[in-house]
Amino acid sequence: MRHARARVLTTSLAVLAAVAVSPLASPSRAAADDGVVGGQQVSVGDSPWAVALSSRDRFGGSRSGQFCGGVVVDRSTVLTAAHCLGPDVIGGPGGTVRDLKVIAGRDDLESTAGAEIPVRSMWVNPDYDERTNAGDVAVITLSTALPAGYVIPMADEGDPAYRPGTGAAVYGWGDTTGAGDYARTLHAARVQVLADSACERAYPGGPEGTYQSDSMLCAGVPEGGKDACQGDSGGPLVAQGKLIGLVSWGSGCGRPESPGVYTRVSDALRVLEQRTSRLPSVSEGA
Ligand code: 4AZ
């Protein structure tokens, strides 16, 4: 097993600072490049807070061992989904993966760009409910801090970014079709925050989960075709320049009647406040 040493960050902070966080660039990509599902290739230079979780021991050396997404909310803090760090994914209670890393600044998973940052510690929400999927949040503390330009603010409760109809973008290296076609580069799809009623209708309680509006957020497009998918879990849903959701679950990918379900970041903040001593700073509402 090859153990790549963490490389010095190559992304210039000045460049990052100069680039406004505009979720998506020009939409003119070939269909073959479409990814997340119904998305397009984007650059980590424009979205440095989008990071990949990696374990080559468990997921193999291709695609840098990527298996989930994450998001940088503080220089040493990455949020992801609890189910990404559960026994089904990383094997064994509490996680037995020894080579878990956070990859920042790497668009192409076949490259060595950016940095692979070892994990100092992780906290998986003990209240994560595998039956409903409620509370799907975990916190990774990095062994070395990222530059401040990597951090995205989080939207607290009451922020207008949570209003239904708000345009948002979901980011990840996951499946681009729902048939196991994992992306090599970071992709993003434009979706919108949907009314809770859309997900309450889709997920009243079933094998995949139960939609709970206090802790989850519903997003997609009414016509379907744009969505997060397997491998995107834990990654960011961003609206108005702020983090509003973490990719969590759904029935299939891109189905019109089955929107994507996200961990509601404002609720995750409450969970972290109550359960941990850490509270990453939040963006002021309005
Ligand atoms: C997954 O399996 C998954 N369409 C994540 C998000 C969605 C579906 C599945 C939403 O990780």
Task: Chart the SSEs and their pairings.
Layout: H1 13-18, E1 40-41, E2 50-54, H2 56-59, E3 66-74, E4 77-80, H3 87-90, E5 101-104, E6 115-124, E7 138-142, E8 167-172, E9 187-193, H4 196-202, E10 216-220, E11 236-239, E12 242-249, E13 260-264, H5 265-275
The protein binds 4-(aminomethyl)benzoic acid.
Question: What's the gist of this structure?
Answer:
The protein is 11% helix and 26% strand. With 286 residues, it is α+β, with helices and mostly antiparallel strands.
What does this structure look like?
This protein has 286 residues and is α+β, with helices and mostly antiparallel strands. It has 2 domains: 103 residues, Thrombin, subunit H; 107 residues, Trypsin-like serine proteases (Thrombin, subunit H, Beta Barrel). It has a 6-stranded antiparallel barrel with strand order 8-9-10-13-12-11. The chain is globular, with a radius of gyration of 17 Å. The structure holds 4-(aminomethyl)benzoic acid. The site of 4-(aminomethyl)benzoic acid has 11 residues, from strand 12.
Low-confidence stretches: 1-34
Bound molecules: 4-(aminomethyl)benzoic acid
**Spatial order of strands in the largest sheet:** 8-9-10-13-12-11
CATH class of the largest domain: Mainly Beta
- The number of strands is 13
Write down the secondary-structure element order.
HEEHEEHEEEEEHEEEEH
The CATH H-level homologous superfamily of the largest domain: Trypsin-like serine proteases
The total of helices stands at 5
Q: Compute the average pLDDT.
A: 86
Shape: globular
Radius of gyration: 17 Å
Q: CATH topology of the largest domain, anyone?
A: Thrombin, subunit H
The helicity comes to: 10-25%
**CATH A-level architecture of the largest domain:** Beta Barrel
Spatial gap, N to C terminus: 49 Å
Main sheet makeup? 6 strands, antiparallel, barrel
